[in-house]
Amino acid sequence: MPKASKARKPSTSISDFQKVLKSSKNIIALAGAGLSAASGIPTFRGTGGLWRKFDVISMATEDAFYENPSRLWQFYHYRREKANACKPNLAHYALAEFSLPYFRSQLGLAKDSKFTLITQNVDGLSKRALEETCTPEVIQSISEDPAHPPMIEMHGRVNDVKCSSPKCGHIEFNPASPICPALDGTEAFVDEDIEKTIAEDDLPRCSKCKALARPGVVWFGEVPYDLEKIDDLVEEADLCIVVGTSSTVYPAAGYAAEVQAHGGKVAVFNLERSAGDKKANFLFLGPCEETLPSCLGIES
Ligand code: BJW
Ligand code: ZN
Q: Mainly resides where (predicted)?
């Protein structure tokens, strides 16, 4: 009788992971909400998935915005206030240090190794960690190669504001708190079943054409940012580090399998089991703010 083939279990060996890490030249990290959980930002699914009484996933669509822009802006105002009040955690800093070629060569990686963090997060914490870790000159030097930027925020940024008029589409970074007077204080309504109704004219407006503005994030059905660049990075990656994502939202959820399909390795860092992790080469279960720095060889 033919023997049933044994499914290979992901390795949990840190030293084996570090051997793979050192021999990798094109590394990507794919991050999700779990990366920012220790900073106090709620995740989307599971226990963090409600704002007031609403399912946060059902609010991430253009339809939800046009149905009730006042509610949506209160949701994003709350998210902006939260993100801007939170601080990066040890996992953000570990990835920021790993962005530095000097640091990677100290760890034993090739001098010309490449690394890009592709984050689905819109909170800006990875960027802040990088800005706190290196000088503007260093950030400029590691950003010189457009094909290998230190980071890509594929679902946009909560501090970006985008014109809702397709004719204009103006987008700008605006972290003002509050972004408009009518939203001031509404972040405090979180636990109460009360809702302010704000007239469209009093919501954020485009600074160019004065049309209603929307948050500059990517909702379901919209095309994420920098997809061509990401596709090239995924295609050449020999190691994909998947951090704190449920791996349920595409196209991001497909990247690890694509890396493995052309012979690259995948290492998953998550608090618990997540979609597709059975096929990973390495699996480190636990808080990524602890597992990631230690696996990357970063002392705290
Ligand atoms: C910890 C931890 C700790 C906790 N340490 N871990 C099939 C193929 C392609 C597309 C589709 C498809 N089927 C359907 C689609 C379309 C759709 C989709 O994927 N739907 C799924 C529901 C099936 N995708 C889209 O519409 C995307 N666009 C698109 O496909 O365009 C078409 C196109 C693609 C390619 C080429 C050409 C055209 C757009 C998706 C936009 C997602 N937007 C949101 C909202 C952003 C704005 C906002 O923030 O408000 O993005 S939804 C939400 O989910 C957010 C997140 O970035 C995203 C992913 O969630 P994430 O980060 O994984 O969070 P969680 O909460 O799910 O998981 C957290 C994890 O952390 C958990 O596993 C925890 O265990 C773990 N964790 N603490 C380590 N301390
Ligand atoms: Zn405009």
A: mitochondrion
